[in-house]
Structure formats: structure tokens, C-alpha cells
Amino acid sequence: MTETAAARQSEMTLSDQDRRGLYRTILGRRDVRGQFLPDAIDDGVLARILVAAHHAPSVGFMQPWSFIIIRSPEQRARVKAAFDRANTEAALMFDGERAEKYRALKLEGILDAPVNLCITCDRDRAGPVVLGRTHMAEMDLYSTVCAVENLWLAARAEGLGVGWVSIIEPAALRTILDLPERVVPVAYLCLGKVSHFLAQPELENKGWRKRLPLEELVAFDRFNGPGAAGDEAFIERMRQAQQAAESGELV
Amino acid sequence: MTETAAARQSEMTLSDQDRRGLYRTILGRRDVRGQFLPDAIDDGVLARILVAAHHAPSVGFMQPWSFIIIRSPEQRARVKAAFDRANTEAALMFDGERAEKYRALKLEGILDAPVNLCITCDRDRAGPVVLGRTHMAEMDLYSTVCAVENLWLAARAEGLGVGWVSIIEPAALRTILDLPERVVPVAYLCLGKVSHFLAQPELENKGWRKRLPLEELVAFDRFNGPGAAGDEAFIERMRQAQQAAESGELV
Fold first, then answer.
1. What is the SS3 assignment for B117?
2. Is the pLDDT assigned to residue A2 strictly greater than 50?
3. Are B135 and B77 in contact (CB under 8 A)?
4. Which pTM value belongs to this model?
5. Chain A from 110 to 149: CB within 8 A of any B CB
6. Does the domain spanning A29-207 belong to CATH 3.40.50.920?
7. What is the DSSP-derived secondary structure letter of residue B64?
8. How far is B143 from chain A (nearest CA, A)?
9. Which of B80, B118, B206, B229 lies 20 to 30 A from B187 at CA?
10. What ipTM score was computed for the predicted complex, to two decimals?
11. Does the domain formed by B28-201 have CATH 3.40.50.720?
């Protein structure tokens, strides 16, 4: 049997049920800040969501990610203090009503969630020359973000909430977590069981920003390129699919 | 009814079937280069996978992504030429046996796949000050990568292959696609039906690099931080979960 035949033989066939599960997880995923419960996370569940992250795509199969599981109250308190400093600075960047609205938002669950997780990128994991990174130096960071999204979706499917805390100086994380120079803190996540998942993104719900119409974000062959004659039907399909997603009937 | 109660009421409850579908999609996803078929992609399927991308997390609900669907043979030929130039340069960066191996790999399906898709990030989509981007300027790029991963997973669940072409000068894409300065080409993807999905990542299969042991990528409370006494059981669970993933029995 050739290598290709062997690979073909054990290819994974996905069902309509699998497809439905994927879409439902994507549509039900939320950035959780205010609904964390203090309950411990099961070891088996944490192991599975890390496996999901580890199966993200990576440039040159580099797998540049590492996972720092942060549970100690001391470490979380340091990170919370770094968040507070950054958030105070951030609030000053908004004006008037917007600033007021900003200050009223809860933007992290660092001490509420039982587990924090820093996902890092080791830029030297595969030596200086990496297949696929030769002309886009940031590809290893992007691979690490794919791992973040995989983990986020797996957590949602397991009933766990994830919140990405980005209002923090990366230099502060570097100090608190002892990161060497070559390791970049890509995502600082809060992770835990939740009282409930919101039906809509919180920033949409609270009137911070609206969901944009998908069809306005799609162009053809070049930036802002209009569709050809036959593309009107496709544009209508996008409108319908977006509506179906919002009413929970995409698949 | 309060806002929270309304949100709680329509929360999406995921089943074990949904969870299984998510994991199976993540484990079965591949970076496709050599298995594309020329068959057209159904409009409804393309609309759904774009909806999946549009439901990615985004910093400050910024939704900075746009999608350029590239079908014209002329545009794809220009991109292919830009890939060829970059790939010739890239091959020279590897030595000896590694260079030979590199040259033997097929690394794109630009002309084979019926649809190419450039996913871009408009860094000005929500004005200069963005909630959550104040201390990590790259968060909008990372949001766009989350959209790429959502689309990739949705495509896999629909039976479509995706390949990310990163061996290309971003400046070349900028010229070919008429991107304004504020818009960054994050991912150039090939998209289409496939003859089959490989059972393993192609670079693993061909001996380019091995899958790393997950448990070596996990630390506690700080970089390289060892686990506490109770963490041995968790480390063993990670080993088991990784083995289960490889034999298709994770969930």
C-alpha cells in the first residue's frame, strides 16, 4: 500500500451532525468576563481543550505554542494589578459618554475564573529558517492565534467560558511569567465554568458596536471589487445565511 | 424581563454530539496543497463558511476583517507568479538535504483550487482608539486570524479543503489586490473540494517535522514552571488525550 493510499484509508469522514456541532459551537462562542463560577475544571476536560489547541495549523508544522496554566492566587493578583494599571490608562483614551460606558464594562475575570492560561509563541522553536515563514515573519504568531481559537471553541463545546484579556502591557506579562526574550505572550485567557453564556456578544448587547452586514465585507477579485452578474444570488445567500445564524437556524 | 434574563433564555445549549463534531473537525482539518479538485463551490456553502468567519471573536467587537474572493484566472496567475518568486528565494535559505526536500514539496494550490480568498484586516475599521487594542496594537490582526481559523474549520466540516499560502511578499498581494495602506493582507487561502483529506499533516507525513509531545509544552504559573504534587495525574491525562486524538478516539 502506498503512503497516499494509507493516508486515504484512515481519512476522517465528517457527518452532518459533526458539521452542525461545529457551526453551533462557533455561533455560541462568547468572550466571557462576568459569568465565571469559581468551580474547579476537570483535568480530563482541560487536557482535551489543550489537545484541540495543539492541533491548530502551524507554519512549517512549527507548533510554536506553549501553555502556561496559572492558578496561584499570587500570580493572578499580579496580573490583575497589571490589568488595572493598563485599564486606567485605556479609560482615559475615550471621550465623554464613551468613556463612561467604557468604565461601566467588566473587561476581565482574572480572579473570578479558577484558571488563567497564557498562550505563548516561541519564535525560535524550529530554528531561524522556517518553511512558510520566510516572507511573512509573523506567521508563527498567527499560528499561535489559531491555537487560541481552537482552544476557545473546544472550551465552549465543553461548557467552559473563555475571556481574552488584552488590556495589559505585554512587558508586564513577560516579567510576571518569567518569559525569555524569544517567547511572546500572544493571549492571556481566563477560563472556567459559567453561570450562563450570553445569547449575543456582550459589546453588541450593550450597544458598544453593531454586528456589520457580512455582504458589505465581501469583495471580488480585488479590494472593493464588485461581483459579476451571477454574484447577486450569492450575495443574497450571504444575507440569508447571516440571518439564519442570528436566529439559530444556520444548519 | 431583564436584559440578562432575556440573554439567558435564548442561550445556545450544546450537546455531546455538538462537542464531538467540534473535536472531529479540529482533528480532521488539514492544510491542503495537492488534493484540490476544480469543481465549483456551492454558493450556500461559501456563504455559510463566511458566516462562520464573521462570527470569530474580535477585539472591541471591531470585526476588522474583509474577504476578497478571487476567481479570475488572471488574478490567480499574478498571485502564482508572486508565489513562485518568493518560493525560489525561500528554497535558497535551506541547506543540503533539507533544500532538496523543500523543493520536492507542493506548497500551494493557487491555480488548482477554484476559489482563492484573501482575508484582510482594516486597521482603521473602528477609529484610532479600540477597546482592548490600547495596549496590544496587534489585537486586530489576531482577531482576523481567528476569523481565518473559523473559516478553515467550517470549510473542513463542509468537506472543503483550505490551504494557507504564506510564501509570498505581502507587498505583492497589496499591489495585485489594490489594497489601501490601512488594509493588511493577513491570509491568502486556496479553497475547494478535494480528492481526499490526508490522515496526518503533510509535513509530519513527509518527515519534515514531528508532532511535539503536548505535555512538554505545558507549564504551571510561570515559564517552564513545574506542576505541583497533584499535577502528575493531569500530565498523564494530557498524554492519554493526545494518544486518543491520534487514534481518533478523543471523544
1. strand
2. no
3. no
4. 0.96
5. 120, 126, 129, 131-136, 138-139, 141-142, 145-146, 148-149
6. no
7. -
8. 8
9. B206
10. 0.96
11. no
